[in-house]
Design a protein that fits this description.
Elements (H helix, E strand, L loop, with lengths): L6 H9 L4 H7 L4 H8 L7 H11 L3 H4 L7 E2 L6 E2 L8 E2 L8 E2 H26 L6
Antiparallel strand pairs: 1-2, 3-4
Helix pairs in contact: 2-3
């Protein structure tokens, strides 16, 4: 499988001084998954391309490069565009152990809830309510 690195994305991210972790946090994924997206091992879905462009404050066409990865990891639902017979399992070329999609979805939902709670608590710390 030929892997298309997202060089335009990587270069602009570095020029703007952002880490992979900062972009990963913004698109609600973990840094190792984002790293695989940037290296071309995992597909970046259209919604993520738009969010990354917004985060980096650049037009989408400045960072977008065609996809050829075999695995799509979507935070909402795993989508399979390979010829895998195990449609209920995420199957990727690096031979990661197969994890049922429902577990991945549940963990992603939990992570998103925690991120929302963290954001709410950050806001609360910025604007503490004065108790009378």
């Amino acid at each position: 499988m030929s892997v298309m690195q997202k060089e335009k994305l990587r270069i602009i991210r570095k020029e703007k001084g952002y880490t992979q972790k900062q972009v990963a946090d913004y698109i609600s994924t973990d840094v190792s998954n984002y790293s695989r997206k940037e290296s071309g091992d995992v597909r970046i879905i259209p919604d993520e391309w738009e969010r990354i462009a917004h985060f980096l404050e650049v037009p989408l066409d400045e960072i977008y490069e065609d996809e050829d990865a075999k695995v799509i990891v979507n935070n909402d639902h795993p989508v399979f565009n390979d010829t895998s017979t195990s449609a209920g399992l995420i199957n990727n070329q690096s031979n990661y152990s197969s994890i049922p999609g429902t577990i991945v979805e549940n963990l992603q939902e939990y992570i998103n809830l925690l991120k929302e709670e963290n954001e709410r608590l950050r806001e609360e710390l910025k604007n503490p309510k004065v108790k009378k």
